Amino acid sequence: MIWNETKECMSRDEMTALQSARLVKTVDYVYHNVEFYRKKMQKLGLLPGDIKGIEDIEKLPFTTKDDLRDNYPFGLFAAPESQIVRIHASSGTTGKATVVGYTRRDLDIWAECVARCLTMAGVTKDDIIQVGYGYGLFTGGLGAHGGAEKIGAMVVPMSTGNSKKLITMMVDFGVTAIACTPSYLLHISELLEQADMIKDLRLRTAICGAEPWTDKMRSEIENRLHISAHDIYGLSEVMGPGVACDCAAHNGLHVCEDHFYPEVLDTATLKPVKPGATGELVFTTITKEGLPLIRYRTKDLTSINYDKCECGRTSARISKFKGRVDDMLIIRGVNVFPSQVEAALVDIKEVTPHYMMIVDRVNNLDTLEIQVEIDERYFPDEIKGLEALTNKIAHTVNQAIGLNAKIRIVEPQTLTRSEGKAVHVIDKRKLY
Ligand code: DLL
Questions:
Q1: Measuring from atom 10 of ligand 1, which residue has the nearest CA?
Q2: Is the separation of the CB atoms in 260 and 284 below 8 Å?
């Protein structure tokens, strides 16, 4: 499964054999080059020779974001600094950033993986692609860029921050593909509609990721822009964008599992769940040189499916993300995922995908307010209409999360738009 699809897809047995060989090599490599892993394995009485294949992966210890922070900045690098040719860092909201390093070969493999994903979204060397992910320490911009160049497409490195220029160039250059966050693409589509420029577009496909989004949101993007929109997943620690992407079948995201071995584990027992069941996604990188990771806990919730896809690819697929282990809010004892609220809101035709959840604590009781932006076409004229709509939204949200939320309807275009990852939750309780 390489990006230009000239090679036959591997059978499951061939894939397992390849993953086993690569895991054995990786374990030996980290044991001899990273003190952190050597010590962790020694603590468990493990030697590299004890790992004979993928079937032994459960013997290995987990790695977490905290481990990266504790070894800031380069403590988990396995290659000498002289061989590291690129650094990225993930935007940590607390404490120090998580720093990741790539060798020349890591960058080549990254570009290969992103190229596969873009190919799944129908991008070819004849496309003109705007990259609207941020360039810089964030992996989105340069990651998508490398894959698009590998394909030979014409790359327009927009980054974020100038939406007006982006839409002008989109029309003037005849841009056919765009890579950016789904919320930003919705914002772009609003701008294009306001400027009556949709009719002038040559856009065919979008590669959106870096934040959770629903199938409903995908349909909205597709219908407004008359394109197909694809879901690309990745995380800085593992590589960046390009770890997985969905094909034209939109039935799960194909994992580049010849480079990143996926496990989906029960969040309580940390044992594998059955295919199709939800659990935490854990990755072991099996070809990385700069920053190999053993059983890295992504905190992302998904399920896995090993059936052959109708597109013909045989790689394992993960489902659209169901939230993160750590973005789960506990409000009045009830577990709430923002993605649940979003899914409920997109079912209401009057509501736009722009919303904000504000969690607070008053008199020792948790409160949840959801500010919801209403589509201009449906904004009620009188109080009665507003009340009816508020009640309808409150009821739908209650059905979805099992909690009463105070719904506050806000005027169209009032909630802050994001050019990067959308922020949907303000948890004021954290300040107490
Ligand atoms: O967001 C890498 C990326 C860039 C992916 C561009 C796709 C496109 P981080 O900043 O390290 O890396 O954030 C990683 O973002 O663990 C998920 O929780 C979330 N995430 C990324 N892609 C998706 C997606 C980049 N398609 C974290 N759906 C991950 C849902 C996603 N969540």
A1: 90
A2: yes
Q: What is the 364 CA–ligand 1 centroid distance (Å)?
A: 34
CB of 338 closer than 6 angstroms to any ligand 1 atom:
no
pLDDT of 2 higher than 90 = no
Average pLDDT for the chain = 92
8 Å CB contact between 84 and 102: yes
Among residues 104, 51, 49, 113, the alpha carbon closest in space to that of 79 is found at 104
Q: Is the CB of 420 under 6 A from ligand 1?
A: no
**Angle formed by the axes of helices 215-225 and 182-194, nearest 10°:** 30
Pick from 122, 131, 186, 187: which is nearest to 160 by CA?
131
Rounded Cα gap, residues 222 and 59, in angstroms? 44
Rounded to whole angstroms, the Cα distance separating 265 from 263 reads: 6
Q: What does the pLDDT look like over 155-183, one tens digit per residue?
A: 999 998 899 999 999 999 999 999 999 88
Q: Tens digit of pLDDT for each residue in 233-250? A: 999 999 999 999 999 999
Q: With contact defined as beta carbons under 8 Å apart, do 132 and 180 qualify?
A: yes
Q: How do strand 329-331 and strand 128-131 relate by DSSP bridges?
A: unpaired
Distance CA 409, CA 103 (A): 50
Q: How far apart are CA 393 and CA 398, in angstroms?
A: 8
The pair phi, psi for residue 297, each rounded to 5°, is -85, 110
Q: Is the CB of 321 under 6 A from ligand 1?
A: yes
Asked if the model's pLDDT at residue 314 lies above 50, the reply is: yes
Strands 317-318 and 329-331: unpaired
Q: Is 319 in the pocket of ligand 1 (CB under 6 A)?
A: no
CA angle at residue 411 from 408 to 413, to 5 degrees? 120
Q: Write out the DSSP string of 245-264.
A: EE-TT-SSEEE-TTTEEEEE
CA–CA dist 432, 326 (Å, integer):
19
Report the separation in Å between the CA atom of 392 and the middle of ligand 1, taken as the mean of its atom positions: 32
288, 290, 293, 183: which is closest to 237 by C-alpha? 293
Among 88-102, 124-138, 213-227, 272-286, which is the least confidently predicted range? Answer: 88-102
Rounded Cα gap, residues 331 and 325, in angstroms = 15
